[in-house]
Amino acid sequence: MTSRALARQPDPGAQQEHVQEIDPIALQIQWSRLVSIMEEVDIALVRTSFSTIVGESRDFAVILLDAQARSIAQSEMSSPAFTCSLPGMTRTLLKEFPPETLAPGDVLITNDPWLCHGHLPDICLVVPIFGRSGPVAYIAMAAHVSDIGGRMDEFDSRDLYEEGLQIPPAKLYEGGKRNALLYRIIETNIRFSTEVIGDIEAMVGAARIGSARYADLIADYGEPALALLASTILTRSEEAMRRAIGRIPAGRYGCDITVDGYNSPNRIVTGIEARGDSLHVDFSGTDPQRTDGAVNCVMNVTHAEVLLALKSSLTTEIPNNEGLFAPITSFAPEGCILNATRPAPVKSRTMTSIGITQTIFGALAQVLPESVQAGSASFFSVKCRGSYADGERFGVYMLPAGGRGASLGTDGAAATPFPSNGMITPVEIFENRSPVLFLERSMKTDSGGAGEFRGGLAQTIRLTVLGDETALVTLRPDKVKYPAKGLLGGADGAPGRVTLDGQPVPIKPLVLARGQELRLDLPGGAGFGDPRKRDRSLVKQDLDLGLISPEVARNDYGYEE
Amino acid sequence: MSSRFRLGFDIGGTFTDFVMIDAVSGQAHLNKRLTTPDDPSRAVIEGLGELLGRIGASGADIEIPVHATTLITNALIERRGAKTALLTTQGFRDILELGHEARYDVFDLHLPRSQPLVPRQLRFEVTERLDKNGDVLISLDEEAVRRIGWEMRQAGIEAVGVAFLHAYRNGAHEERAAAILREMLPDATVCISSAVAPEIREYERTSTTVANAYVQPITKTYLNQISGRLAAIACARQLFLMLSSGGLASVHTAIDYPIRLLESGPSAGMLAALHYSRLIGIESMVTFDMGGTTAKVGLIKDRQPEKSNTFEFGRVARFRKGSGLPVKVPMIELIEIGAGGGSIARVDDLGLLKVGPHSASSIPGPACYGRGGEQPTVTDANLVLGYLSPDYFLGGAMRLDPEASRRALQEKLGRALGLSAEDCARGIFQVVNESMLSAMKVHIAERGEDPRKFYLFAFGGAGPAHAYELARALHMKGVIVPPGAGTSSAMGLVTAPVSCDLAKSFVTRLNAVELDDIRSVFDGMAKEGLAMLVSAGVARDDPQVATIHSMDLRYKGQGHEVTVKVPGGAMSRASLDAIAEEFHGVHQQKYSHAHRHLPIELVTCRTSVAAPAPDLPASREAAHCGPVGQAIKQHREVFFGEAGGYLSTPVYDRYRLGAGASFAGPAIVEERECTLVIGPSGHVRIDATGTIFIDLAVAETERRSVGAAEAIAS
Fold first, then answer.
1. pTM metric for this prediction
2. Which of chain B's ends, N or C, has fewer CB atoms near its CB within 10 Å?
3. Per-residue pLDDT for A7 more than 80?
4. Is it the case that residue B713 has pLDDT exceeding 50?
5. B261 pLDDT exceeds 50?
6. Is the Cβ–Cβ distance between B213 and B110 less than 8 Å?
7. Is the domain of B600 the same as that of B505?
8. In chain A, what is the straight-line distance between the N-terminal and C-terminal CA atoms, in Å?
């Protein structure tokens, strides 16, 4: 194969590592092969997963790391925040289990929020891939499983111990042998253990497929060429990120934002320092961590959200890898809500972390208006659990999205998540797995923030229960008090709302029975730019389609027929 | 003797291709005409007249005319369908626009989205509701349907799709609503989701129904017109249409379900491959069809093409999964890669060489066409590498300019990459091959298969030039190139069986299935399928009609299903056990784990009813006479990666090589419509059917040990 010939061409300088270089064609080919391995891992996980969170909501990531545990490739659709926190997690696990002590067939596991992704349902695995003399690469993955034990509510835990099972760094498999005790501990401590164990097994199976593919790659190129590939990917990507940061005039850019929180709102204060070819994000001044609600965010998650926002803004096209992260640092004072200390309750940390991308886009809007996005609405989390008359239990889960924020030149999409990503569970699947009956799922007029580019519309979902069963519904609404923020003259999106038979309900698990109607109005995405500058034909079209009302057309857009 | 020809014609974007095959001798006659977009039937009649004249036959000699068309695909992409309305369950008209909600790119802040085929103001809702078992919770408000019908008439609606929740379990409400709408809108077509795609998942089912409705009126007009034109030249036989599943259907069925004609052209290519697999006695192979803008890869196992049940059309980001609109139709499974002869190469922000998915198309075309194209393409690279002859492109009808290629390579790539034009050409060839290889590997692996077991069956204008390198990189047995590989898709039309694929969702635990219920679902589909075959002229009691049932199964709680064949004979408890066993096995093979202790859930039942493929005799290639050296036209310098440089390579004239000829690579074999590239480790032989085999002698030691990979992984 020619590519191999090129990569292995006897090069007079090849002995001295510091002058070794990979030609651009071999680099392109080998890089795309790495990504393609991870695509295969991704597909295997989706197809064999049990919970709708992995299979339909895609709340997972699969990444490939080099011998030094630096991330070099991932599947394209991997949940972005996970891909930013997984490399650090892998390195920490490898401190606990040094590479030289690992054996083929080992699988490492943990769900420690401070090592991984900030709450217990996110289970992380690391699988070493062996070369001639030890691990030469790793596959790491994180997936949100549908239960991890602990309290049923989303917010009321007072510390981490109430939030479910903690799995410290451990070997799930040792030399290919299942750690039976650990499996039993997991099974014993969680609800729906079949689903959760099924998802963990799906992760292990997918990682095995990835390991076998990487072994093929070693057979094709050899270990030294792959080591060179990894360092080249990292260097090139880092250089690209530094160039992109260079577009930002040196200086400090600030933005503050308030998020709903639980009992009371929380303030996030952000300062971005652009320093030529590097960038520092400082969250000093942000509210302290909470003891009255599980909305605390660990530093791993905070930093991951920073990286996700900046990667989206500055180097959209480059396949994600850790080289992009090298020029970026972030700081949040210990004990603040973005750098909470153990054992703070963290279960619903998304309520806080969701504000981070928005505050970074807000800060950069002043200098890079073409590279940011107005506030996106949050998703709601909806869990329905209970038992049928015959005793069989059901547990279903849905993450409906609000509207996406608009950006320069692009209206926000209706009911589209950001920064998370995932598919909604179809109504027909949800109804087949539970006694729940949906009455409506529709786009909500006027919910997208007005702007030269309009925010994405939210959706309204109405549901009830059919038959004599009841469903325990656990909800996590967001942007009910503080809607998605407009940018550069664009209006905020509509706030969200939850009602039971027309009455607002507190955020507590509720029992839904036949004849009752639960209504979820998701929040809308925010607008970008002055609505009065919006193309008149687009305003008319929005009006014709019923996306905006005549009142909004007149009052917000200044539209006269 | 009359009625002895099978006719196939395929109307493509640029050319309309014809093939007439003599059912007695097996001899094929080909013709090609420029497509006439204003009235496509004109090119058909003109081209057909020409062909009939050439072979001294008349329209009455045509036994079965078979047609494939890109009309449906193009109407959907170019949004040239009917003014369409949608009727849904109260509260759910926006299902069509809300879709899955997921973003198809996680980082892009300016992501475009496909617009729905029916705008919001033409989506209507009516009070009615079924539960998950298909039982009526709220009966259909017929008065409201009438009111909506009247509104649709006022709005000038030409086509209506009806899609209610859980209609895959019970189509009664949809049928009643459709009957009322047909009364109210006598000139419009009306279709219902329980007939078009009775499968669970409301977005996909609604999207499929709407797409079907959208193309129904134009399909009806068009097919009636073509049928009329054929009748006018004394071809009294019923016209058949090629389906995306590889089967044939009558005009009547095609008008009811035009969405099943989507991508029928590429499916025809797969059927051609199937035809040759029968002729040459190789039952399993990987197919590779590479043209000007895309490459398509498929898998034939035991003389069956792999099938899938979903497709996405009109992707706004080319080739990006999730950026188009989904349809649930039985399809021959082909993966499409944005890589063809016209694919443009460029240097990206990181200084890397990228090829495609943008194509130079036919206008302006690759730089070497000399028609104003300035961007270097795959064809330019292939010319510089010596794979193509400047003087024998399309049999010499068009001269290629290698200097223009070199200039484009140097200016657009070489300068930025610090490489020579030749190095850039090598790079393009490798990069485009690699993107095809990645897709092929994933596709083959996803089916639990190993590429080393197969030959690569190559066709299309560019396929035979790239196949050797791909087969080598995948350690395959070799490459097979059929006669006339540049235009072999049309052959699939005349070799296809009449068949019908049906599906119905039926969600239940496999071990709790009521045998009577499941029998009635399968028997119902078998009856419906047979009725379609009979309407297409198949004898009701033809003993050769094959009915195959399968089930989409998953472990209870899983989100995705695996399709498993149902064993023949009457459905019994024992056959359910056998199905469960088969499912565990397939799951284990595909995903390297199974969960034998978990209950299995049935989601969708599928039935395929097929008449046998026509038994056409193979046309025999004349035996090769004299030394093969006589077929050499010239020698030219050709680049081979495995040799690390250019080799003086003999160029063979395909038309001077007969059956039994055999020689070693490196070699080039030129035909009018394509060029075969054979590297130094390939060995060429031509069999009695005129098919060219390129065998790859791979030493056992070079074959990778699968065992080693598994040791690492387990």
1. 0.89
2. N
3. no
4. no
5. yes
6. no
7. yes
8. 66
Contacts of A364 in chain B (CB under 8 A): none
Q: How many CA atoms lie within 13 A of A10 on its CB side?
A: 1
Say if residues A554 and A531 touch (Cβ distance below 8 Å): no
Q: pLDDT tens for residues B662-688? A: 999 999 999 988 899 999 999 999 999
Give me the mean pLDDT over the A118-132 stretch.
96
What are the tens digits of pLDDT across the range A19-72? 478 888 888 889 988 998 998 899 889 888 887 667 667 889 999 999 999 999
Confidence grade of residue B602 (pLDDT, cut at 50, 70, 90): very high
> Of B429, B557, B704, which is closest to A216 when you measure between CB atoms?
B704
Task: Evaluate whether B304 touches B608 at the Cβ level (below 8 Å).
Answer: no
Residue labelled with tokens 């292939």? B382
Distance CA B194, CA B187 (A): 22
Q: How confident is the model at residue B586 (pLDDT cuts 50, 70, 90)?
A: confident
Model confidence band, residue B40 (pLDDT cutoffs 50, 70, 90): confident
Residue A473 placed within a domain: yes
Residue A99 is classified by DSSP as G
What are the DSSP E strand ranges found in A131-238?
Answer: 135-144, 170-174, 177-178
In a domain, A329, yes or no: no
pLDDT tens string B463-509:
999 999 999 999 999 999 998 787 677 788 888 888 888 888 888 89
d(CA B691, CA B276) in angstroms, rounded, equals 8
Interface of A with B in 68-107 (CB under 8 A): 76-80, 104-105
Q: Which of B395, B419, B294 has its CA nearest to residue B347?
A: B419
Query: Is A501 among the domain residues?
Result: yes
pLDDT band at B13 (very low <50, low <70, confident <90, very high): low
Would you say residue B585 lies in a domain?
yes
What is the number of CB-based contacts under 8 A between chain A and chain B? 263
> Which residues are CB-contacts of A282 (< 8 A; sequence separation ≥ 6)?
A270, A271, A272, A273, A330, A331, A332
Structural domain including B602 reads 499-610
Domain for residue B158, yes or no? no
Residue B703 has pLDDT above 50, yes or no: no
Residues near B623 by beta carbon (within 8 Å), at least 6 away in sequence: B658, B659, B660
User: Cβ neighbours of residue A506 under 8 Å, at least 6 residues apart?
Assistant: none
Residue % of chain A over a pLDDT of 90:
80
In this prediction, the answer to ipTM > 0.90 reads yes
Q: Are A407 and A293 in contact (CB under 8 A)?
A: no
CA–CA distance, A302 with A332 (Å, rounded to integer):
8
Please list, in sequence order, all residues whose beta carbon lies within 8 angstroms of the beta carbon of residue A101, skipping any fewer than 6 positions away.
none
At a CB cut-off of 8 Å and minimum separation 6, what does A50 contact? A194, A195, A196, A198, A199, A202, B555, B557, B558, B559
In this structure, is residue B479 part of a structural domain?
Answer: no
Mutation test of the interface with chain A: which of B113, B316, B350, choosing the one with the most A Cβ atoms within 10 A? Answer: B350
Nearest to B247 by CA among B682, B635, B611: B611
Q: Give strand pairing partners of B296.
A: B289, B336
A201, A219, A239 — which closes off a domain?
A239
**Measured between CB atoms, which of A36, A77, A237 is closest to B106?**
A77
Cβ within 8 Å of residue A216, ≥6 positions away: B704, B709
Could you tell me if residue A542 is inside a domain?
A: yes
Residue A53's domain comprises 2-239
How many Cα atoms occupy the beta-carbon half-sphere of B588 within 13 Å? 9
Q: Does A392 touch chain B (CB under 8 A)?
A: no
| Among the partner residues A212, A316, A432, nearest to B108 by beta-carbon distance | A316
Give the number of domains in chain A: 2
Using a pLDDT cut of 90, give the percent of chain B over it.
Answer: 52
Cis peptide bond prior to B357, omega within 30° of 0 = yes
